[in-house]
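Reopening this one. Same input as before:
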Amino acid sequence: MKLIQRHGYIEFLRRNRERSIIKVVSGIRRCGKSTLFRLFKDELLAEGVKPEQIISINFEELEYEPLREYHALYQYILNQMQPNQMNYIFLDEIDAYKGDVEGEGDPVNLAIKRTSTFNRRKIFMVSTPTIQSVSRIEYEYEQSDQRHYMVPCP
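Same output, byte for byte:
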């Protein structure tokens, strides 16, 4: 299957790649958010990033269902992290993940905070927003500089 190149979006991710912020991509269902991440991961690989430096989790895929438990998610990410190398963490459909872990808080944010000892990591999140004021992607957007970047469909 040939993917439609999204040059404007890829350029935006490229420009902000080295910034120590979480990159948040949000949009309606089936608009190409996951495809955008796939294109960007392909670009990283073409530039010489090793596959083991890319950690990619889609919370809607059955193979990642065991990672819905916070400790399993944290351990998975920790085990995949490459010491002394840049790590690229792609978290897809984060709103599909349950919102609280035994009263400890958001499991995705807990895992991210606990991997913060790895200063050589870049985090990319994508999701379709779900319930307002409960949506994880909405929260991440609110914590960002709230920049909007629109590229019209080709």
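So the earlier flakiness isn't reproducible anymore. For the record, The chain has five helices and four strands.
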